Amino acid sequence: MGPHVADLAIAAAEYEAGGAIPEGLSKDGGNAAPTFTVTGVPDGAVELALVVHDPDAPMARGFTHWAVYGLPAVDGAIDPAAGSAGPNSAGETGWFGPQPPEGHGVHHYYAWVYALSERVTGTPTYEEFLDRHASAILEQARVVGTFER
Known about the structure:
The structure is a single chain. This protein is mainly beta. It has one domain (9-84, 91-139): Alpha-Beta Complex (Phosphatidylethanolamine-binding Protein), CATH 3.90.280.10. Helix content is 5%, strand content 34%. A five-stranded antiparallel β-sheet has the order 6-4-3-7-8, with no helix packed on it. The radius of gyration is 14 Å and the shape is globular.
């Protein structure tokens, strides 16, 4: 199957694509959750999933900072309270702001939105979500921010 890209797009209110994530969103700087807006939700989508992941983290599978499933399949601002939070890599639910090891260099934080043709059951980890629901991804999009300590 080919790539799942067409019109779906995601943007962050607090930073430009490829730009630095503000300190206030970091774990040590206030841990405020970012605000994302989605456009181009495809016909046939029954829900959206939002995942923020750092592949540069010095862990075998990187570090998932946020996973939210069951979001309404509509254009506009994403309201995390409208979905169900899955676990992040710290074993918690909810936003876990950037906190890369000091001196480890620039980390890239991929905020993925997935438009799905089926509902996600339960609150899987990011890996479990992809294993179970990859075939239901109608489209996906991302915005990347950077952070360094």
